[in-house]
Specification:
By secondary structure, the protein is mainly alpha-helical. It is built from 11 helices and no strands.
């Protein structure tokens, strides 16, 4: 899953959200230098990724992209799934997406000192271009995919995946909806476990 889903699946605790958001930049046991709640967020992120990568419904989505994008298919599906979460946000939260996103950006600024350097450098671009809110439009997803493609020095051709998104829009949305219901339940159980263990 991509940024918006990871933040959403963290529940209401600000520090768990921060941990989940920064987790990709924290290797091995380096998470142990952080506060307990940030640790929970990092560990929750890892559990979500493991669950997602092994899930048969997600594999249907990635298989559709594999011929053209190879091992980048999983990254693309993560981004496409965030699109469907943002687009259908009212099905998952009573809080408007723009308010939810604004509160999270405020939280990043408040917790700036604990963010890894890579996230600190990325954050101004994320906020200025309002990535999380713009996931709800196809143009917003196009911009994200173009940015990802640039980071691979144009090797991935991920920017072209918006074509598959449009061609198989209903299939991707159905797969997301089925999978995300299971992921919400899984994440809630994992959070309870982490709260008991740490």
């Amino acid at each position: 899953m991509n940024f918006l889903a990871h933040i959403y699946l963290s529940g209401d605790n600000e520090q768990i959200k921060i941990g989940n958001f920064i987790a990709d930049g924290i290797r091995g046991k380096k998470y142990k230098v952080y506060s307990k709640n940030i640790q929970k967020g990092i560990l929750l992120h890892r559990e979500i990724d493991t669950f997602t990568d092994a899930h048969k419904t997600v594999r249907l989505s990635t298989k559709r992209l594999h011929k053209n994008y190879g091992h980048y298919s999983g990254v693309i599906v993560d981004i496409l799934y965030d699109h469907f979460l943002a687009k259908n946000w009212k099905d998952y939260s009573d809080e408007p997406l723009d308010k939810y996103v604004e509160d999270f950006y405020d939280s990043l600024e408040t917790n700036f000192e604990v963010l890894p350097e890579r996230i600190q450098k990325m954050m101004p671009f994320m906020i200025a271009d309002n990535w999380l809110l713009n996931y709800q439009s196809i143009d917003g997803i196009q911009n994200v995919l173009e940015g990802m493609n640039r980071r691979t020095k144009n090797r991935s051709q991920m920017n072209l995946a918006v074509n598959e998104l449009q061609e198989f829009y209903n299939e991707f949305e159905t797969e997301f909806t089925v999978f995300f219901e299971e992921l919400i339940i899984f994440s809630k159980h994992k959070l309870i476990e982490l709260n008991n263990d740490l």
